[in-house]
Amino acid sequence: TRSTRPQRLLKAVKQHATRGDPQSVISAIDHFCRHREWAMNVGDEKGCILDSVVSELNPEKVLELGTYCGYSTVRIARLLPPGARLITLEFNPDYAVIARQVIAWAGIEDKVQLVEGASEDWIPRMKEHFGIETFDLVFLDHWKDHYLPDTKLMEGCGLLRKGTVLLADNVICPGVPDYLEYVRNSRSYKSCYFKSHLEYTRAEDGLEKSVFLG
Ligand SMILES: O=C(NCCCCc1cc2cnccc2s1)c1cc(-c2ccc(F)cc2)cc(O)c1O
Ligand SMILES: [Mg+2]
Question: Is the CB of 150 under 6 A from ligand 1?
Fold first, then answer.
């Protein structure tokens, strides 16, 4: 049977990237998605904005909602200080199989914990299952209609503290209008928009950075 796009993306990583070199994994995926097949990674342009937010924050505890093939997982984990941890949730088991191999190829698996399942099932279990009290950074890149309910769930579970940064992908395309309205109008957030483009295209998209004020 025909291979899947994530399987072909992983093959490109194994053919063109160097084991243990996260940057070469990132470049191999960007090249594949720009010249072979588009895929829904955050991409190189928005990825640079993600890098600058991570580097400035130097987070110890990061939550990523939506792993896909692990591209943004590798982008974030490669910048984390020793001892820092990234928990990434993926709903689709086929994507998780690929992401684990991409993460291992990059050599950053000891910073990453990939968990399979739905965000609404796992968010309430972060404390008892992972011993995490609060997160320093949350990267939202999963179902677009889940950004808002999951943000409210994280608030309710006490997973956000003064200064926690929420960074949301795709706030223009596909778009998350209810989430944007919330973080931009709530007194509990200081929000700003980083204008960019949908990965590997000329369509507008961007990242919204929202600091929780408590
Ligand atoms: O859907 C997107 N990402 C979400 C899929 C992950 C589903 C999950 C649910 C879930 C629940 N719980 C835990 C973990 C998870 S992972 C997505 C789509 C586009 C896009 C697609 C077509 C197009 F024409 C223009 C843009 C671009 C993007 O950058 C995206 O991120
Ligand atoms: Mg995305």
Answer: no
Instruction: Give the span between the Cα atoms of 17 and 115, in whole angstroms.
Output: 25
Q: Is the CB of 193 under 6 A from ligand 1?
A: no
In which residue ranges of the chain is pLDDT below 70?
none
126 CA to centre of ligand 2 in angstroms: 23
Q: Give pLDDT, residue 48.
A: 99
Q: Which atom of ligand 1 is nearest to the CA of 66?
A: 16
Mutate to test the pocket of ligand 1, among 143, 153, 167, 171 (most ligand atoms within 8 A of CB): 143
User: Can you tell me the distance from the alpha carbon of 125 to that of 113, in angstroms, rounded to the nearest whole number?
Assistant: 14
Burial class (CB in 10 A: 0-12, 13-18, 19+), 119: buried
**pLDDT reported for residue 207:** 99
- Residue 1: per-residue pLDDT: 85
- The CA-based dihedral angle spanning residues 95, 101, 102, 104, taken in that order and rounded to the nearest 10 degrees: 140
Ligand 1 mean position to 143 CA, how many Å? 5
Say whether pTM exceeds 0.95.
Answer: yes
Q: Name the phi and psi angles at 106, rounded to 5.
A: -75, -20
Strand partners, 85: 61
Between CA 60 and CA 81 the distance in angstroms is 7
